[in-house]
């Protein structure tokens, strides 16, 4: 029974201890927390003051600057494509025989009519000689028959020796021999043509391909064997595709003029040749959303080669006196493209702009900027509206090298060398 009395007493003691600890926490913890917040507030104020003083002590932000220019800028649509020979011929034989000579060298430039391959001409020379002999025989017989006809005609009129029947018979013989002479002439021409075909000549002006047959090979006119390929490269064509969204504007321009097309190399860095647009395909490729175009280039310097991959720059029109700035000046913000404009008091302000296109590191501004306005082209990473700047001399690349900055592409980049996305929906080079 004693044990049962002591157990409730111990439980009451434990509950009392818990109540005492809870009351103490109620009063002590808020007092300590308030003191800590006060200390932190004082520390923060002290740190903020130091930061402001440090910013004031730093002074103007060094930047590179330039003025917006004004020039005539072509509006360009880019496409990718391949160079295609203006004409390409797979040369084949039109007569049978063995190859006895090859006149060309691989890769040689040939003109129309230049000899390429010689097929043994002796059978065709013999056929020509035979046809000429038969023709001569028939011509002699015709001449004799015509003399007899003339005598019979005289006798018929005098009614001496020749009858009308003899005259008609001789007249028919003359007509028969005339037909034979004409047939002989056709045979001579055929034999002469075959003899000419035994020397295979270039049908077009162009460049010879690789040698496909050797001397001694037997060729036949009915076979599909190609003896050599000749590709015309002056002029030459480029077949390329562009997005279908430019089709309405392209057709409008093409209705009044032939738009210029500039062919660039595969890296899109070097201009190779300039030509004109000649063909707009009659349908859009639904799988890719593109339209196929063809341009013709004079290619006098043979800069373009059949099968070569090129980047085609289609010039739709030219903006007269367009406002231009270095592409490095364009920045991207939450509301789109903008530039930092330098005000007369050397502070900067954000100026929203509309970029029509970026070409050769030059941005064409459609809206928001006037020619002659001073803008920041390098060193934008430390700028905010109202910050004072100190314009440095030199090229924008020097500023990046001296003071690495952090931008969208990481340390050392401010984004100024990256073209703004959506700039006229034309990818800058």
Please, could you describe this protein's structure?
With 429 residues, the chain is α+β, with helices and mostly antiparallel strands. The protein has helices spanning 2-58, 122-158, 164-197, 247-254, 396-402, and strands spanning 61-67, 69-91, 97-102, 109-110, 115-119, 199-201, 206-208, 218-219, 228-243, 260-264, 271-285, 290-297, 309-326, 331-333, 336-342, 348-352, 354-359, 362-367, 374-378, 389-392, 406-407, 410-411. It has five domains: 1-30; 61-72 and 320-411, conserved putative lor/sdh protein from methanococcus maripaludis s2 fold, CATH 2.40.420.20; 78-84 and 227-319, Beta Barrel (Elongation Factor Tu (Ef-tu), domain 3), CATH 2.40.30; 93-117 and 202-221, no CATH class; 121-197, Orthogonal Bundle (Helix Hairpins), CATH 1.10.287. The strands form five sheets. A six-stranded antiparallel beta barrel has the order 2-9-12-11-10-13. A four-stranded antiparallel sheet has the order 6-5-3-8. Mean pLDDT is 81; it is low at 1-12, 22-57 and 400-429.
């Amino acid at each position: 029974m004693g044990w049962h009395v002591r157990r409730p007493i111990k439980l009451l003691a434990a509950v009392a201890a818990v109540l005492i600890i809870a009351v103490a926490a109620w009063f002590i913890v808020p007092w300590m927390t308030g003191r800590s917040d006060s200390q932190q507030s004082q520390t923060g104020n002290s740190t903020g003051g130091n930061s402001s003083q440090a910013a004031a002590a730093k002074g103007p932000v060094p930047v590179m600057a330039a003025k917006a220019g004004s020039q005539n800028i072509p509006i360009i649509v880019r496409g990718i494509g391949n160079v295609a020979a203006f004409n390409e011929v797979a040369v084949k034989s039109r007569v049978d025989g063995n190859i006895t000579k090859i006149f060309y060298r691989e890769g040689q430039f040939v003109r129309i009519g230049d000899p390429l391959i010689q097929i043994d001409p002796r059978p065709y020379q013999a056929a020509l000689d035979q046809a000429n002999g038969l023709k001569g025989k028939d011509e002699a017989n015709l001449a004799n028959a015509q003399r007899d006809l003339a005598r019979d005609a005289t006798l018929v009129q005098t009614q001496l020796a020749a009858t009308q029947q003899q005259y008609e018979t001789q007249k028919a013989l003359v007509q028969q021999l005339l037909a034979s002479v004409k047939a002989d002439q056709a045979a001579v021409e055929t034999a002469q043509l075959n003899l000419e075909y035994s020397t295979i000549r270039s049908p077009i002006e162009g460049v010879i391909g690789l040698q496909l047959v050797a001397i001694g090979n037997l060729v036949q006119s009915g076979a599909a064997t190609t003896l050599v390929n000749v590709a015309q490269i002056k002029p030459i064509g480029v077949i390329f595709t562009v997005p279908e969204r430019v089709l309405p504007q392209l057709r409008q321009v093409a209705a009044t003029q032939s738009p210029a097309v500039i062919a660039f190399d595969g890296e899109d860095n070097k201009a190779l040749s300039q030509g004109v647009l000649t063909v707009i395909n009659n349908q859009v490729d639904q799988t890719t959303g593109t339209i196929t175009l063809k341009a013709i280039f004079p290619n006098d310097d043979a800069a373009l080669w059949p099968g070569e991959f090129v980047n085609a720059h289609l010039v739709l029109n030219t903006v007269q006196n367009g406002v231009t700035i270095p592409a490095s000046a364009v920045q991207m913000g939450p509301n789109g493209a903008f530039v930092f404009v330098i005000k007369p008091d050397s502070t900067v302000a954000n100026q929203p702009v509309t970029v029509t296109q970026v070409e050769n590191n030059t941005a064409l501004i459609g809206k928001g900027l006037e020619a002659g306005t001073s803008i920041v082209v390098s060193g934008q990473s430390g700028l905010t509206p109202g910050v004072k700047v100190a314009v440095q001399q030199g090229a924008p690349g020097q500023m990046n090298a001296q003071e690495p900055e952090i931008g969208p592409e990481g340390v050392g980049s401010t984004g100024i060398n990256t073209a703004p996305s959506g700039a006229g929906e034309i990818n800058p080079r």
